[in-house]
Amino acid sequence: GSVNPLFLGAAGQATGGGIERSVRFNSSDSAYLSKGYTTSGSRRKATISIWCKRSKLGDNGGLFLVSDGSSSTFTFVFKSDDKIQVYWNNGAANLSTASVFRDLSAWYHFVLVVDTDNATASDRAVVYVNGVRNTLSGTFPTQGSDTELGLTGSWVHTIGMHMAGVFKLNGYLADIHFID
Asked: Alpha-carbon distance 103 to 63, whole Å?
């Protein structure tokens, strides 16, 4: 068999070379991937899994975003303080990781689990980094609230940048999965 370089080194860090099937984003290119859905999915339960290697610190970079082009949005992004922010209008969630992510040589595995039906507020949005749950602080979503995830019509799911041209990512992404 073959060895996946993502599993070499400590904390998910590759020992060198590129990662197969990865994509590079440069903020100056304004590049992003997008998908609109024709069938609605679950708006209360979802998991997003992304491998990321950053190439610039101190900028706002989009990992996974959903928007209809107006002020209503869902974001899973790096903020300028090098923390991860999880935000959505529905349910008024606005959360930030305790950890910062400043190692430009490391591949990080980020997993966001959303379950707004959970009775425990701090379990309605959970971020794992390299398999370890990261502490989130801020405003947790209200129980049973809907997110913008899985919406159809004018709602677009994007990776690498918000469709309004903000949160432009500088870095590499690989093995991106969204399950609702």
From this structure: 17
